[in-house]
Write a structure and sequence with these properties.
mainly alpha, about 70% helix
Length: about 375
């Protein structure tokens, strides 16, 4: 299998995460549940609303892990091409800083259809950018070191959450919510999500180098996914350290809805296992039916463009123009998703071609 074919599964899985994300964001704009829904205390009146919300929980860990995998791959590829370690790392840091700027200058304002300029917020794209800069500094360490560091970050994060801070103090709030806690300034603190990115960079060693055949990648990925899910279940059943939300019983939806803002240890381990299992499934499908996942691959090649444009379109259409803003339920969310996919797929195909042909520095960063 050629290199180009071998790594299609990364783009395809990023494409799946992107498509799921659009469904989640369509729900955010068109689903009336968000009029009274508190993401820090999720309650659901029906299983279909729960499924719609829970589906989106895969997106952030999926993006962080795929980004971590591609940071490792980009670094090793540049080193193999003769670049110095410093030059390869600086390339990654530039990309990470660009993501932070995109968050501040575009994404924040796009949620409201650019009605208000909102630079004072840090979100998922900014978190990915900062994590990318940090990972660039560690990307040449052995995978064992990155695994230990990731697990250490997961373990210490609940202790850091106990640090008191004045929510009315801008600087203490910005510092705590950038790295540890979740709130209005930032729902995606760097420390736990950087741990997820480290786990992705660790898995990349197997996915992209050590495991030579599709069968080997699928089987070993499934074993790792199963182990992660078992450990996550053990943490959850302990009902103590590593959990942030209580649950009623095993199998009830409350069991799965441990906290995402910020993620608990159970949440991090559970979705690490889900992502690894999903990537294994995509490797098998891509090997068996290679054309089936081609539309997702198209999205996954330009995920930043896809993210930035679809939120802007939804924000302008629904929030700024007030068209059907939070007036429907699950059906409205699904209709909005179908329409957005029909709009975004040709736009994504077009920009993918532009990026492939362009040598412009900024276009290559998008």
């Amino acid at each position: 299998m050629s290199t180009g074919q071998r790594f299609h599964f990364i783009d395809e899985f990023r494409g799946l995460v992107g498509a799921m994300m659009v469904l989640g964001h369509s729900s955010y704009y068109f689903n009336s549940i968000w009029r009274h829904f508190d993401p820090l205390d999720p309650l659901f009146a029906s299983w279909d609303q729960f499924a719609l919300r829970y589906m989106g929980y895969l997106c952030a860990p999926g993006f962080l892990m795929m980004n971590g995998a591609m940071v490792w791959y980009s670094y090793t590829r540049r080193r193999a091409a003769g670049h110095s370690s410093g030059a390869a790392k600086w390339h990654l840091i530039q990309r990470g800083l660009f993501l932070v700027l995109v968050q501040v200058l575009w994404v924040n304002s796009s949620w409201g259809g650019f009605r208000v300029f909102r630079p004072g917020h840090l979100g998922i794209i900014g978190c990915i950018g900062i994590s990318m800069c940090l990972l660039a500094l560690l990307v040449n360490t052995r995978w064992h070191v990155r695994l230990i560091l990731a697990l250490a970050l997961f373990a210490v994060h609940p202790l850091l959450l106990r640090i008191p801070y004045d929510a009315d103090n801008v600087w203490s709030t910005a510092l705590m919510q950038t790295f540890i806690d979740s709130g209005d300034f930032n729902k995606y603190p760097v420390i736990p999500w950087f741990g997820i990115a480290l786990m992705g960079s660790m898995m990349a060693v197997g996915w992209l180098r050590a495991w030579k055949t599709t069968r080997q990648r699928v089987v070993l990925s499934l074993w790792i996914a199963a182990l992660a899910l078992l450990i996550a279940t053990a943490v959850r059943m302990g009902r103590g350290y590593g959990n942030l939300f209580p649950f009623t019983e095993l199998g009830h939806y409350s069991f799965f809805l441990d906290q995402k803002y910020p993620p608990s240890i159970h949440h991090a381990l559970w979705f690490f296992g889900c992502v690894v299992g999903g990537v294994a499934a995509f490797q098998w499908i891509g090997h068996t039916l290679p054309k089936l996942l081609a539309p997702l691959r198209m999205i996954g090649r330009v995920p930043l463009f896809y993210y930035c444009v679809h939120i802007a379109l939804l924000g302008i259409f629904s929030k700024r123009l007030g068209i059907y803003y939070r007036e429907g339920e699950v059906t409205a969310s699904l209709v909005g998703w179908v329409v957005m996919m029909a709009v975004m797929l040709p736009l994504t195909a077009w920009f993918g071609g532009v990026k492939r042909r362009s040598r412009n520095y900024f276009i290559r960063l998008i």
